[in-house]
Amino acid sequence: MKKYFATVLIAACAHPVWANGLESLETFVKTVSSGRAEFTQVVTAPGKDGQAARSKTSNGTFEFSRPNRFRFVYKKPFEQTIVADGQTLWLYDTDLNQVTSRKQSSALGSTPAALIAAAPDLRALQADFTLAAAPDADGLQWVVATPKGKDGQLQAVRVGFRPGEKSSGLAALEILDSFGQRSVLSFSKVEVNPSLPADTFRFVPPPKADVIKQ
Predict the structure, then answer these.
(1) DSSP character at residue 209
(2) How would you class 195 by CB atoms within 10 Å of its CB: exposed for 0-12, middle for 13-18, buried for 19 or more?
(3) Which of 9, 109, 123, 195 is 20 to 30 A distant from 55 in Cα terms?
């Protein structure tokens, strides 16, 4: 389960159309070139053999700069870092002192991270996702993204925006994988278009870390 907190970001059946959610996503991609936020992530695995579903909670920080650069830092309960530097996608597990690296161009296309942080425009998203507005719920406007590729573990993604928000309005990201596991990221303290230091998206494997290239 610990690994799933990170890989869920690297690894929806459409509802009736309500335009505002899709328009909110388009506005977000067009106007927000960089961002910073805190997040809480709840991963829920389906129950087995009659047992109740199991949930795990983590939290951390998130920064991004379009196109194709972002950093997720998980602080609790397990320390992990995910960095996309424009060329390579890095995953660092602090407890294991293990780094996994992948070529970014082959890892990011149909991923949740692409929806909110990597894609330069809506057309780029539509190359990998079928996008549809969804009914408002929980005080948010929603857009559903269904991956066009059928060979991955990602089944559906929903992105929630707060209507009337003066900043980006980005509020939530819900991810459902093909195993029935659901991950919900709730964002807070969202900063829009901050000036981020150049080394924010630079990653150097720590000394003596085990580096695995995929």
Answers:
(1) -
(2) exposed
(3) 109
The size of the chain, in residues, is 214
Do residues 181 and 47 lie in contact, with contact meaning Cβ atoms separated by under 8 Å? Answer: no
Q: What is the pLDDT along the chain (214 residues), one digit of tens a residue?
A: 555 444 444 443 233 333 478 889 988 998 999 999 999 999 998 877 777 778 999 999 999 998 889 999 999 888 999 999 989 999 999 999 999 999 987 776 557 877 888 778 888 888 888 999 999 999 999 999 998 877 677 889 999 999 876 556 899 999 998 888 899 999 999 999 999 998 999 999 998 999 999 8
Q: Is 76 exposed, middle or buried (0-12, 13-18, 19+ CB in 10 A)?
A: exposed
Quote the tokens at residue 58: 């983590």
Query: Could you tell me which residues come within 8 angstroms of residue 210 by beta carbon, excluding any fewer than 6 positions away?
Result: 96, 97, 98, 99
Task: Return the amino acid letter for 54.
Answer: R
Distance CA(62)–CA(146), nearest Å, equals: 23
User: CA torsion sign, 76 to 96 to 65 to 67?
Assistant: negative
Tell me the three-class secondary structure of 34-60, residue by residue: EEEEEEEEEEEECCCCCCCCEEEEEEE
